Amino acid sequence: MKPTNETKEFCDYRCIHEKRVTAATHDALPGQENQHMAQLFKAMGDANRLKILWALEHEEMCVCDIAAFLKVSESAVSHQLRLLRQLQLVSNRREGPVLYYRLNDHHVNELMQIALEHTRE
Amino acid sequence: MKPTNETKEFCDYRCIHEKRVTAATHDALPGQENQHMAQLFKAMGDANRLKILWALEHEEMCVCDIAAFLKVSESAVSHQLRLLRQLQLVSNRREGPVLYYRLNDHHVNELMQIALEHTRE
DNA sequence: TATTTATCTGAGTATCTGTTCATATGGTAA
DNA sequence: TTACCATATGAACAGATACTCAGATAAATA
Q: Which of A13, A44, A64 sits opposite B41 (nearest CB)?
């Protein structure tokens, strides 16, 4: 699949990579930013995590609230919250033994709103 | 961890689920929309697919262009494009045996821009 | 027709992910 | 202290995912 000038002149339907690939490479995101963005989307790309983020957008909730809401175990929720915490999408506040979680990133809501529009078209 | 009114009155640090859970349930997305949104984010939550979408935002490209750009096999690209096609995020146009792919959803770019802002804060 | 190019597809496989389960930690109250 | 509650954590397991490989398909040309 190596395109060459000969093949290009010989037969005009052959793929001509160079220009497009170099253009794409030129406009490409730095690998680090691309990776970071993918990580964000991946975090939002799970039905339960997305429900958590949607709920926390409206009101802070503790782990067992979320577990009851999602109808899954508190352990499962805790694992998901750890992931969201590591990405700094949520933060928490302690009140006695109870941890109240809330959204910690204003982009998350914007992303959810656009995705919602998307589903409604 | 069933919360009851007795426990609530008895000990004020216990979780009080009912109000929050019912509030969250009230504001919750329909399961179908939630699932659809998660699917969109999941599709964008892979480094290679995100690179593809980013590249196609700038210029239409054929499969072997994309493969050369990403430095992965054409087969792998074809599998990823099928996924993106099924979600109607990209579409293609045939020119002889060559298929040129392009973005087919104006939300994708908005989402990428916000995610990019996110990474830069 | 046979051949070549570009792409697609299904099967197989290694890796990643999300859950469960058991256990640990931190805070509160008797 | 001891008991209890809310949450966190690590190991283990099942299912999902993304790649490779071999073969199929569609279009152009000889």
A: A44
